[in-house]
Amino acid sequence: MLNIYKEKILFLILFSIIFNYFLFFIGSGIFIKINFSLFIFFSIFYLIKYENNKVLIIFISIIILIALGTLSDSWYARSIWLFKAKQIFYDNSVLSVKHNYAQFSHPDYPNLAPAFVAGMVKTLGYWNEVYPKTGFSLLFLPPLIIISNFFSKNFFLITIVFVLFAIGRFLFNGEMDGLVSVYFVTSALLIYNYNKKIRLSIIEVLTLISILVIFTMLKLESLFLILSFVFSIILINISEKKINKKIILYLFISLIPIILWHIFCIYFKIHNIYSDPTSQILQGELTGFAYNISDFSKRFTSISNYILIGKYLLINEKLIIALTFFFISSFIRNNKKIVKIVIFTISIYLIILFTTYMSTPIVLEMQLSASAYRVIKPVILFLFIFGLYNLTKKSKFV
To answer: What's the rounded Cα separation, in Å, for the pair 315 and 74?
Structure first.
């Protein structure tokens, strides 16, 4: 079990990320600066006082230095996530998206991470086009701290290798997919372990809810990933006649912010350029709202579409290596529960992805070439980390 003081400091680090978002609702500049300063203080204090794993400190330092030393050359980083952060910084609010400005930047996407970046920039006092994306790299710290407590030093070094291999430049390029991958694995490890416990302490509950709130407010895929995992846990629990209703309750509580965000977007009719029924783009391909039944009905009977989606999603050397590693670890340590959960989770998520791609109004191959390699990254890291966890089955949390 984690030292109670470590748990409290870790929760304060997570809470400061969420509280930063709340402060941008009320536009309180001085408190935003104080809150971000506290995030830095608690993070440094934790690393110096409690973090015995020097690999984590070195790793975080390196990705921050790389983020500082590289330009934002990715369109998604520059035109969506950093654009959102810049808009929040100058507007001093996360609510300005209600004007539905710059639909190309997907104003309907959750903006907790850009708000965190804006909070960092507020603290430093000015915007430029280089250092703000360092804020996204800082967000890797809390989940990596949690993961480091699941593995001993040598095994944690292996997890870092897996993280580097699975998400690579997404650690520092200003895009969300690396964060989604790491927060997903962290959330899954916590839920898997807490699901086995009869009673959780208040600080454990708050930490779990906090990590889930941050995770689900990163990107839409986060919601699908966590629901896939929790549904898999529920299926296993039903088969074992051991249903943990509290975990379901904590998940529901953690989903309240993202549900409110979508209600907010619907109320103010916030949408991106691909879901605007008045848009005329892509040679007339777009005729209605994004991800609609009409496009799905046109595609789902064609085998060629399944083959095309499968090629982009599944013919991936990193995915193949991750699958191989997971099945080797499962053969060495035959933990049927972990194997079932991982297979169910990935199967459900892939069904969601196939359905989503079938429903897009955008030219299918164009959509796949732009996004398939990104949305599969959480699956790759999930296979690696749970394969390694299956081999060790040692955790300071249990």
So the answer is: 23
